[in-house]
Each structure stands twice: as structure tokens, then as C-alpha cells.
Structures
1.
Amino acid sequence: MRIGIDIDGVVSDSYRAWVRELNQHFGTNILELKNYDLSVDFGVSWEEMGKFFEENVAYLFEIPEPMSGAKEGIERLLNKGHEITYVTARSVDQKEYTLNWMKKHKIPHEEILFTGLQSKVDYVLEWELEVMLEDYLGNAQEISEAGVPVLLLDASYNKGELPSGIIRCHDWQEVVKIIKNGSLN
Ligand SMILES: [Mg+2]
């Protein structure tokens, strides 16, 4: 099966690391993100949040640990003969940081698509991905509406009812199990 996998919040435990850094920077004490858009929870403008990321980009992409079970899950899927394409909203300028991080944590990778501000849907369709693993509900909805099933990795910022076509997974073990059983619909 051709599997698409998002990076931040799915392979890289980015938000945990970023929330820690942002708390330090803004003097806040946010423990759990309620919104995918960090500027909302931290009560700052989108521009201010963007500036913080721009100024610290190398560090912020280096520090996250992998999500629990991600490396093992990816290895198991590859061993079963599945093809993995990463689809990330990071920009192509962030390719080097991303590759270095993957290497550092020994995460198997071949193709990584950097969509930047473009919709992920076009990439998912063009690359004929048969399922997408995501943590952002907005992307999950768009991809699912385009006819591609989505596995949504559970997070504090993606709670709520899901439409058919999106399956909530609580951890990587569940992701692997669902793909293995072929129970996507
Ligand atoms: Mg993500």
C-alpha cells in the first residue's frame, strides 16, 4: 500500500518540544494545546509566532524527540512491503533540518514532499497515496473529502467527532494494526 505520513505531530514529537520552548519565551505555562494553531493558545499574533519560528528554525527542528513508537511503526510497515511517502507542510527551505533530524533518529526515509503553504490534497492525489496519516484535523478533512482514507493520530488539539473516512488512532501500534488488517473503511 502507498502510505502518506505527516511529520510534525506524527513522526516528530514537535509540539511537545515547541510548547516547552514557547512557554519559556513567552513566560506562559501551557501544558496542553487546545488549538493546532500555536498562536491561538499562546495568545499572540500569527506574525509574532512566525517570527519566533523564523529566528529559531534550526533549533526548533532539531530538538524534538520522535513520537513514541513511530520509528518501530515505520519499520514494521516497510518490512510488510508498504511504500512510505512523507507529506509535510514544512517548506523546502527546511529540507536540510528535516533530513538531519531523520538521520539523527534513524528514521527510515526516501521520499519527502514539502508542501509549504500548498494544500496537501494535491500531493496526496498526485502521488496516488492510498491512505494518509495526519494529526491536523483540517488536513484530514480535506484529504478524506478527496476520497483518500485518513488515519488521525490522536492529539489534544484534534478532539471531537470525526466524519466517516477518518479513523482516530491512539498510538502508532493502532496505526500499524489497522493498516495490517486492511480495515480502513
Ligand atoms: Mg502534523
Note: The first strand starts at residue 2 and ends at 5.
2.
Amino acid sequence: MSDVLLKVEDLHTYFYTYEGVVKAVDGVSFDIRKGEIFGLVGETGCGKSVTALSIIGLIDEPGRIVSGKIIYKGKNLLELSEEERRKIRGKEISMIFQEPMTALNPVYTIGDQIVELLLLHEEGIANIKRAPKELKEEKKKKAIEMLKLVRMPDPERTIDSYPHELSGGMRQRAMISMMLATKPSLLIADEPTTALDVTVQAQILNILLDMKEKLGISILLITHDLSVIAEVTDRVGVMYAGNIVEIADTYALFDNPRHPYTVGLLQAIPSVTEKKEELKYIRGSVPNLIYPPSGCRFHPRCDYMMPICKKEKPKLVEIEPGHYVACHLFGGE
Ligand SMILES: Nc1ncnc2c1ncn2[C@@H]1O[C@H](COP(=O)(O)OP(=O)(O)OP(=O)(O)O)[C@@H](O)[C@H]1O
Ligand SMILES: [Mg+2]
């Protein structure tokens, strides 16, 4: 399909630790369309970040992508050389993290960091000191425009600040504008608002919406927060223990969740059920990914468990147009 920007196909990413092989991502498939915000949601440790790092090509020892395909604009990224991957990583696919301090350089001002990226990506100049003064001025003006785009307060002044002089929300904005300097087609945002307070969280989510609407950027938004998913995503994939258990339009997922795990997740969110006194939790605990349960990994926690669930891993099947579920209740054998 031509409106697909990125297609993840049967991805397996494992970590070879002393304790055993952690099957962190074990057969994950989904696609991200041009200009959409695709959400990936699930409890801690289910493999969301490992999926993101696999896409951007930052899985390190003891981890390895064991099999699968990651097709970006028709090319399988897993077949590219390290150099070709690095090019795509810097330019076409960008990632923002939960704590932007780790990605910002503490000894340079925000402005210098954005100008440096603009010089590199627009002029091919790798060293800011080598750039002519007028060119630097021109890029600085552009950097201010970019800070305005991410609604940075007082951009003319902020541009000369160092990262530690900014609040968490402002750092996240600086980080996003740095990402925009390379004009990516896909932005991966891994828990971009988790460390921020609620008002700042809402502002950052609005910036992501702006980027989608004004710049046409596709976004993979990773979060364990279903209210964030509800607010900004177009479609969602629900992950459980290294697998995707359900994919649907966001509205359909909240309106008509089908996988017992998704149903449980939604019931555990007060703002969705609006009946706080009846809040339910999914019984049991998140499985160990070295020795995951056989068959459907959710079976030990599932109220609808059938004999087949212990034996066979259910496949993701389309039960309604665009709504996919991996569950034996829906014929996923
Ligand atoms: N470098 C590593 N070495 C060994 N195991 C790892 C490594 N990185 C991740 N894992 C394991 O892979 C699994 C998936 O981790 P991942 O970070 O993707 O979870 P997550 O869904 O992003 O969770 P969270 O919501 O807490 O960020 C976990 O069991 C984790 O312990
Ligand atoms: Mg994570």
C-alpha cells in the first residue's frame, strides 16, 4: 500500500544475557502510514522501547535483531549497511526520548546545537566554526522560527540558553526542534511526556499534533498512558509481553476493545471507565520474557482461557476492517 511509510514485519529482537535469552520483541508486525500518529501502548517491559530501538537501529549488545523486516519507503532497513542506516537514522527517522537532557549537549547553547544541525543537513558543513558568519546568522534566524514552531516561550532569548537553564518542558521543545532540523519523515517519540507535569504534557502533545498536521510527519508515539493515546493517536497497537495483541483505529479500540488484555487495560484506567469505585486490575503479573508462557502469552492472566490458548500462539487476524486481534476467541489459530 502506497500510504504506508514504515512496515514492521514479524520482528524478533532478543537479548542474550547470562540468565538466558530475553525474547523482548517476539514476532511484532504493524505499519505506520504517511502523516499519522501511531501509538504503541502496553505495560512496562512489554517491548515498546526495544521495538523503537530496533526501528532506528540502536540495538546494542547483548541484543540482536534475530529476524523480521523493517521496510521503510520500500527498503528493508535490516539489509542496509551500517553507514546507510546511519544516514537514515540521522535524517529521515529521528527519535526523542523521555529525558531530553541525555540528547542535548550541556556545553553548547540550544541555538548552537540547532544551527549546527541545520548547517550539517542543509549545507553539508560539519563544523560550526568553519561556517561563514552570514550563513550562521541565517541559520540562527531559522532556528528561532523552529523554536516558535514548537511554541518555545521567548525564543529570541531561549536560543542563547544552555540546556541546564531550561525547564524539562522547554528542554523537550528544544529537543523536538533539533529533530525537525533534519526534516524527518518519521519521528519516534518514546514516552516524550512521562517526566513532565500534566500541563506541559498537554503542550508537548499539541506540538506533536502540529508536526503531524503542519509538516505531515508520521509519528510513532510510545507510551503506557492510555489517556495520551486517546488524545493524539490515529491508530494504536497494544503490546503484551513482546507481542502485538491488538491493532485498531484509536476510536475503535476505545469503543470496542476485543482482546481480553486490552479490555483489562481500559478497565484499569479511571478516566475511561469513569467509575472509580469499580476500577479493575488485571490479575497476575507481567511474564518473564526469558521463559514466557506457552501459546498465548496472556493465557495465565486471562479470564477466557481455553485449552488451545496454552498450546498455540494466536495469529493477528483482521476481525473488522482495520481492526486486528491476536486471540483464540476470535479465531486466531
Ligand atoms: N539491554 C538489555 N539487556 C537485557 N534485557 C533488556 C535490555 N533492554 C531491554 N531488555 C528487556 O527487554 C524487555 C522489553 O524492554 P523495553 O525497554 O522494550 O520495555 P518497555 O515496553 O519500553 O517498558 P517501559 O514502559 O518500562 O519503558 C524487558 O524485559 C527488558 O528487561
Ligand atoms: Mg520503554
Note: The domain at 4-92+185-330 is CATH 3.40.50.300 (Rossmann fold).
